[in-house]
Amino acid sequence: MHFLRKTGVVSFGALTFGIAWIPWIVLAATHTDISTGTGAVVFAVAASGPSIAAVALWLRRPGVRIAARTRPRVSWACLALMGGALSPAAAAVILDPASIATHASSTVASVGGWLGVVAYTLVSGPLSEEFGWRGYLQPRLRLVMHHPLALTAVIGATWACWHLPLFFVPGTRQHDDGLLSYSGLCLLASFFPLSFVALLLTERLRGGVPAAILLHAAWNMTGALMPPTRGAGAVLQLAVLVAVALLLGAWWRRHPAPTATPALWGHGESGRLDREPAKRM
């Protein structure tokens, strides 16, 4: 626990949940309209909690940082797009293919065209969250959690818990679905395989935060363009996502990481933080 406090993990968790949960709880309690006006602004700022917390801690402690690992590659870019888009697309194609074109056209028109779709799905989730989850939290936890499944479990649980207040905020998709519905439970469960896929993309394939942003954006955009999947559709979507994670996990086992994990160095809150020895996957 001392090491987690020293590296900023505890501070990150407190800031991330505080920035999001407090406004969301207020919005839920007051039944504020989040589609326009002040409600929309408050909701958007709260939804950016992970990235805001990461930036704030980077500015507060600029001496502590993670070694850059990003390498521009077509492989992780393609896998990020496919990994994010496959599960919602497959569920829609299998269960309701006739409604895909109509629903996609309606969604595109509602946000002012394809540029609006790209902008909305990129900002809402990928940019507002991934600098926190994959840019700040993941590499710091990686220094003490060397097994990918253990790291995935912790980040997935944190990510899922962070979304819980949204089930009580009127106007959100989560609120419409309900926490204990198939859709709600499958959404929470999906953060675990998504976290595993993101770990492979960001670290094993060295895609870094850009890969996580691309994965998250593909998942959001495809989910918005496809007809809503509830009940059996939500279960099918989760099953496809788990299958994708299992296939990538099998590949990972056959091709273990040839290089060391990210290293953390700089000055901690209580003095010098010596560089941690790098560990293999």
Automatic annotation (TrEMBL):
One of its GO terms (molecular function) is endopeptidase activity. The chain crosses the membrane at residues 38-59, 74-95, 107-128, 149-168, 180-201, 208-226, 232-252. Residues 115-221 form the CAAX prenyl protease 2/Lysostaphin resistance protein A-like domain. GO terms for biological process: CAAX-box protein maturation; proteolysis. Keywords: Hydrolase, Membrane, Protease, Transmembrane, Transmembrane helix. It comes from the Bacteria. This is Membrane protease YdiL (CAAX protease family). It comes from Actinopolymorpha pittospori.
